Structures are given as C-alpha cells and as structure tokens.
Amino acid sequence: MTEHFRNSTGEAVEQRRVLIVTAVAAERDAVLRGLKGSDRFHVVAAGAGTAASAAGTAAALAAGSYGCVISAGIGGGFPGRAPLGSLVVASEMIAADLGAETPEGFRSAAELGFGSVSVPADPGTVQAVAAALAAAGLPVSTGPVLTVSTATGTAETAAALAARVPGAAAEAMEGHGVAVAAQALGLMALEIRAISNPVGPRDRAAWKIGDALEALTAAATILLEVL
Ligand SMILES: O=C(O)c1cccc(C(=O)CC[C@H]2O[C@@H](n3cnc4c(=O)[nH]cnc43)[C@H](O)[C@@H]2O)c1
C-alpha cells in the first residue's frame, strides 16, 4: 500500500508502508528506537528460524497492507567481508543449508530440482539503502546473506559455506523465510544485518550484541529517510 505526503515544493510523493520482521524482542526494540515513532513502519518479533519468520511475516501481511518487507536483526559476519559492528544489506537471501548431503558433498535444493534457494533483492534499492547508510557514516557492505538452521560454530563450516556461496557476507536464521513470504504476495523483500559475531568457531561470550543492536538502531533511522 502507498500513502502520499507533500514535499517542500508541494509535490505529492508516494510512500510505502514497510513491515520489518525481527527474530527476538531485543532486535525489535532496537529497530523501534531508530524509527522514532513513525507509523509508516510496523515492526514484529516473529521468532527465530525460517518457519517462525515466514509464518510471522505471512500473518502480518494478511493483517495489513505493505509495499515492502524487511528482515532485520543481528547476524554473523564472514571474516574479511563484514566486521563486527558493521551492517550488511543483502543482495540476495539464500537458504544456504537447504538440500541434501550426498557422497559427493552437499547438494542444494535447487540442484536437486526443488526450485530456487535464493530470493534476490532489488539491486537499486539495495544500493540506495547501502549508500544512505554509508553517507551517515555507518560501515556497510552488500552481498549474499545466508539463512541457516544451525549457526556456524567451526572454521570448517564457515569455509564450506563461503565456498558454497562466493561473496557471502553474513549469516542469520530468518532472511530467506521472510523473503519467501513477501515474494508470495509479490512484495519487495530486503534483509539488513548488524554484525554481532564472526562466522566461525563459536565464542558466544565474545559476541558484541550491544554494539550490533546500536548499529541496528542507527540503520532504522536511515530507513526512515530512504524508503
Ligand atoms: O542475548 C541477547 O541479549 C540477545 C539480544 C538480541 C539478539 C539475540 C539473539 O540471539 C538473536 C538470535 C538471532 O541472531 C541471529 N544470529 C546472530 N548471529 C548469528 C550467527 O552467527 N549465525 C546465525 N544466526 C545468527 C539469528 O538470526 C538468530 O535468530 C540475543
């Protein structure tokens, strides 16, 4: 759905209502702090994982009209691609572990003939959002964001995922689910991750969740202007 407002020259400008889906309440609240009470944005914490995020997105889309859906939250950054505290705007949302193990190695659901495991984001929107974040002084990169059912906890799995998806920037657990639900209604989907930890050997005590939530709040404020 679109709403209109008049800009400084009196011209009518379309603005879309935006649904933002996070996994947990702390992420939702970080986003809400950045949105400063805007009623054009609706933010829901739908739970962790693709099933909860897809179901939560579908339920919210059934209850309201939106022009755009965003999966947002903290995430793991691939070393050399997305440092802690930085932001990643997904160029595509990929179900990276949806497939089968075979004697020859992992085969994706797409390779097995079950359809695509990737939902591409609109390149122009990705670039516009990333440019606005960068212009605000926030460290940001773009690239594929992997949706996984099990958070990576070893260097071996991190290397396997990076080889499976060249250029992979970040991983989280919801983006593909949110994007598939949006895609079913023909809506544009985006994913934005604030990096709390590296993808690699698990060290939960070292996760910089507070810094990532602050970055998420700053990103939400920029979304007010750019979407
Ligand atoms: O403990 C807290 O205070 C806290 C605050 C905000 C968020 C959390 C979460 O644990 C969020 C879970 C959510 O995070 C994503 N995530 C973060 N890092 C990774 C990763 O390396 N691999 C996969 N997922 C990651 C994921 O989307 C989870 O649903 C805790």
Automatic annotation (TrEMBL):
<keyword id="KW-0474">Menaquinone biosynthesis</keyword>
<comment type="similarity">
    <text>Belongs to the PNP/UDP phosphorylase family. Futalosine hydrolase subfamily.</text>
</comment>
<dbReference type="GO" id="GO:0008930">
    <property type="term" value="F:methylthioadenosine nucleosidase activity"/>
</dbReference>
<dbReference type="GO" id="GO:0019284">
    <property type="term" value="P:L-methionine salvage from S-adenosylmethionine"/>
</dbReference>
<dbReference type="Pfam" id="PF01048">
    <property type="entry name" value="PNP_UDP_1"/>
</dbReference>
<keyword id="KW-0378">Hydrolase</keyword>
<dbReference type="InterPro" id="IPR000845">
    <property type="entry name" value="Nucleoside_phosphorylase_d"/>
</dbReference>
<dbReference type="GO" id="GO:0005829">
    <property type="term" value="C:cytosol"/>
</dbReference>
<dbReference type="GO" id="GO:0008782">
    <property type="term" value="F:adenosylhomocysteine nucleosidase activity"/>
</dbReference>
<dbReference type="GO" id="GO:0009116">
    <property type="term" value="P:nucleoside metabolic process"/>
</dbReference>
<comment type="function">
    <text>Catalyzes the hydrolysis of futalosine (FL) to dehypoxanthine futalosine (DHFL) and hypoxanthine, a step in the biosynthesis of menaquinone (MK, vitamin K2).</text>
</comment>
<feature type="domain" description="Nucleoside phosphorylase">
    <location>
        <begin position="31"/>
        <end position="221"/>
    </location>
</feature>
<comment type="pathway">
    <text>Quinol/quinone metabolism; menaquinone biosynthesis.</text>
</comment>
<dbReference type="InterPro" id="IPR019963">
    <property type="entry name" value="FL_hydrolase_MqnB"/>
</dbReference>
<dbReference type="GO" id="GO:0009234">
    <property type="term" value="P:menaquinone biosynthetic process"/>
</dbReference>
<protein>
    <recommendedName>
        <fullName>Futalosine hydrolase</fullName>
        <ecNumber>3.2.2.26</ecNumber>
    </recommendedName>
</protein>
<dbReference type="InterPro" id="IPR035994">
    <property type="entry name" value="Nucleoside_phosphorylase_sf"/>
</dbReference>
